[in-house]
Amino acid sequence: MKHLLLAATLSLTASAALACETVTVGDLSVEHGWSKVTIGAGRPGVFYVSISNSGATDDALVGISTPAAGMPMLHETVVKDGVASMPHAMSIPVPAGQSVQLSPGGYHGMLMGLTAALKEGDSFPVTLSFEKAGEVTVNVEVLSLRAEGPDCADAGQ
Amino acid sequence: MLGVGAYRTRSRPALGAVLPVPISEMTWQLTDEKNQSVRPADWIDRPVMVFFGFTWCPDVCPTTLSDISLWLEELGAEADRLIVALISVDPERDTPDALAAYVGNFDPRILGLTGSADEVARAASEFRMTYRRVDKDDGDYTMDHTAGVFLFYPDGRFASIIDFHEDRRFAVPKIRRTLS
């Protein structure tokens, strides 16, 4: 409850606090959904989010969908021998009692086939599909290309 | 941040790795985001920081350029003589105009360089970095590439690499060592 009050306070003081909202499905809470500006609609957008599992059962993120992009996929940035590659992630484990971040340099959503360029201050919904908990939709806030994450008072990144 | 602790930090490539050639011995010729020709000789007597990437890259490249922008901010005027360049490994899509639109989102001291496929390959070989086109099912493609940031002393000698997952507390001191 304290958390919700905090988010509500932020939305009054900051114009862009969508990313600070928390949504829940079953034992999972999902928050800090954010993306970065794209130059035009031809380049892929990115999607970052935090997921925590307070339950006793392992779950996994198995897909994302959004009206903002025709082909959203889960990827992981892997650096091996200094070389970065970005393999497709079939699923991202969300183990019982743990938190998982889709964050710069690690797991992320790649939004290919954007319907429009992403501009700073825009927001769009992303629906996350979990193996066990089902689907949940978060609002994603578009931050600058330089952003490192949303500025939430409780952001644990 | 996931897994940061799992990555080894180091000040130079593993033993046996081939070091980049000194800037003074490099021979590439590229074009910056203002359509000006740039050659290694233009960088003589200046410390140099180079990162390879491409503007279609959604995660690694903006993350690295954000990091570089923060380092430059922390160094302030101290880094004004530092040459900072992103060299595109995707010259097919990264025209000077595309690079201008991209680097304009970061610290204004960051240059964007591109060129013919041959010149980019020459630069990559002289920096001893690797890149590879990865075709995807839908006809689109992405690029795998060395993600470290290369540092050189003003006399052109290779100084060190800042690895992609390296603790950022080590980055600014590494850059500072090339400035004096």
Protein described:
The complex is a heterodimer of chains A (about 160) and B (about 180). Helix content of chain A is about 10%, strand content about 50%. Chain A has about 160 residues and is mostly beta strands. Chain A has one domain: PCu(A)C copper chaperone (Immunoglobulin-like, Sandwich). In chain A, the strands form 2 sheets. In chain A, strands 1, 2, 3, 4, 5, 8, 9, 10, 11 and 12 form a 10-stranded mixed β-sheet that branches. Chain A has a two-stranded antiparallel ribbon with strand order 6-7. In chain A, about 45% of the residues are buried. With about 180 residues, chain B is α+β, with helices and mostly antiparallel strands. Helix content of chain B is about 25%, strand content about 25%. Chain B has a 7-stranded mixed β-sheet, sandwiched between helices. Chain B has a two-stranded antiparallel sheet with strand order 6-7. Chain B is globular and about 50 Å long. Mean pLDDT of chain B is about 90; it is low at about 1-15. Classes of the chains: A mainly beta (about 160), B alpha+beta (about 180). The interface of A and B includes residues 82, 105, 144 and 148 of A. Strand 7 (about 85) of chain A pairs antiparallel with strand 7 (about 140-145) of chain B, so a sheet runs across the interface.
Give me the secondary-structure topology:
The complex is a heterodimer of chains A (157) and B (180).
Chain A: H1 2-13, E1 22-25, E2 28-36, E3 45-53, E4 59-65, E5 69-76, E6 78-80, E7 83-85, E8 92-94, E9 99-102, E10 107-114, E11 123-130, E12 134-143
Parallel strand pairs in A: 2-12
Antiparallel strand pairs in A: 1-2, 2-3, 3-9, 3-10, 4-8, 4-11, 5-10, 6-7, 11-12
Chain B: E1 30-32, E2 37-38, E3 48-53, H1 60-75, E4 83-88, H2 96-103, E5 110-114, H3 117-127, E6 131-135, E7 141-146, E8 149-152, E9 158-162, H4 171-179
Parallel strand pairs in B: 3-4, 4-5
Antiparallel strand pairs in B: 1-2, 1-5, 3-8, 6-7, 8-9
